[in-house]
Amino acid sequence: MLRRVREALGGARGAPPEVPRRYERRLSAEDAAAGADVPALFGERVAENRAAVRHVGADELATAVAAALWGREAKQIVVPADLPFGWLAELDGVRAMADRPAIDVDALAAADGVVTGCAVAIAETGTVVLDGGPTQGRRVLTLLPAYHLCVVQAEQIVGTVPEAVGRLDPARPLTWISGPSAAYGADMPGAEGMHGPRHLEVLVVED
């Protein structure tokens, strides 16, 4: 069978087709005009992805984290072992479990949520990307809890996907998150939380 396919292709077989790679590496004029700046556009797109988003100052972050967790009536959360203590400084009545030693999957699934940072964020798509680097922890931390509170620094936000790819190491375990986890099939209604949190909240920190 393969021989017949090769014969049918003739002498041109094996010639790689030209792949256009003229990707847009900056925001389109329309997107740039729609948002006052890149962080603002990111916030708009995050909201369009059915996630909650709030812009806060650096001095408001600890209060915003606490308010978000109190709003969900969280009692126990998990955090990466290197999460800055200052992010949780205003917590009261919420137990934060650091992932050191590694927390087992049952305890992760039973937690009320997880708080992490990110590696980069994309304004064009409202996406946050985690790569297991500082403030992010293991991938499983953001796959099992039903609620993910992600802190994004304004300087981590880029305009487009190619810009984000340029900042990332493809050898690292990359998790791309555009809104709450959801899965759809031809013979099934949409199901949320099958491979990630059902609720995503983003705090954009701007000086």
Automatic annotation (TrEMBL):
Instruction: Identify the SUPFAM superfamilies for this entry.
Output: NagB/RpiA/CoA transferase-like
Domain of life assignment? Bacteria
One Pfam family from the record: LUD_dom
The residues the entry assigns to the signal sequence are: none
Q: Which InterPro entries match?
A: FTHF_cligase-like_sf, LUD_dom, NagB/RpiA_transferase-like
Name it: LUD domain-containing protein
UniProt domain LUD: residue ranges? 107-205
Q: Which organism is it from?
A: Actinomadura physcomitrii
